[in-house]
Every structure is written in structure tokens, then in C-alpha cells.
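Assess the record.
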Amino acid sequence: MKKTPQTFFQKYDAIISLILGTILVIVIGVLTFSIISSARSAMQQKSETEKTVTLPTTYMVSEGDTLWDISIKFYNTGYNWTDIADANTLDNPDGLAVGQELQIPDVTPIVKESGDILDGATTDVKRPLHAEVTVTEGDSLWLIAIREYNDGYRWVDIASANAIITNPDLIYPNMVLHLP
């Protein structure tokens, strides 16, 4: 009887099977760990968001915070950012400093129903007090909208009606703005 030579795979098939089996066990272990870890993380996030905060309270400003974001944290809506600004008498709502302590007032959350806002513009048809205004030092579109319409969210309408405004955050004294 003549022996036939064995190929590499036939000779080492047990070792190859052992290596592939080990790799498969490691991959399954990593996937299981990943799934358990992400489920645990999701449960922790859920429990953190379910914690109730008694208002009024204080809040320490963190890196990247805006009044809109802080309002969402406490009221589940960003529209109460003006209440936070008023409670803290903030001259510049965009000028928050990391570590700044803010008072969070106990107010009713402002909830805009679907259809209340269309493309960022309000749908009510309030008329402004004046047909046009001249920007003064310290003005912002928000402040002008409050002064003219008694509704700060009308700043979008003012910006849209004035082609000279290329950046709504940059308006300058002596600019003449037409009010829709």
C-alpha cells in the first residue's frame, strides 16, 4: 500500500480548526459585551432623564451650553430660554460663560403645537408699531421683534424682509429695517 502525500490543510486541519474556533469565540464575546454595554448605557441615560428637578433651581453653565439647550434640559422645550434670560437679567443671551450660575425659574413650559411655526416664521399676522425702524446700539432682531410685534420669534420675518441682512446676528446701528 502506497501512502499519498498530505496537503498542508490536511496535515494541519486540527490546528486550523482550533484557531478559527478561537477567533469565533472572541468575536462572539466582543459582540455580546458591546450589546450589554450599550444596553446598560441606554438604561443609565433613561434614568438620568427621568430624574425630576424641582423648580426654581440653579444651573452651572457648561462648555457649549446655550439658553435654548438649558431650556430643553429643564422644560423639555427650548422656547422658555427667554424666561431664563429674564430671570438672570442677561443683556446678551449669547454671552454665557462656562461656570456661570443661572437661576432657572418655575414657569409653565411653552409648547408650540404643530403648525404654529412654518419654516421658522410665525404664522400670526400681527402688525408692527412702525413701518420701518432704525437700528440703535445694542439692538438685535429679537429685541426689535419684541418691541415692534411683542413677539421675539418674529425676528425671522424681519430678517427675511430685509435683503441687507446677510447674517441675522450682525446688524449695525443706523441700518434701516423694513418691518413686514
About this structure: The chain has six helices and six strands. The domain at 57-104 is CATH 3.10.350.10 (Membrane-bound Lytic Murein Transglycosylase D; Chain A). The two ends are 103 Å apart (CA to CA). The first helix runs from residue 8 to 11.
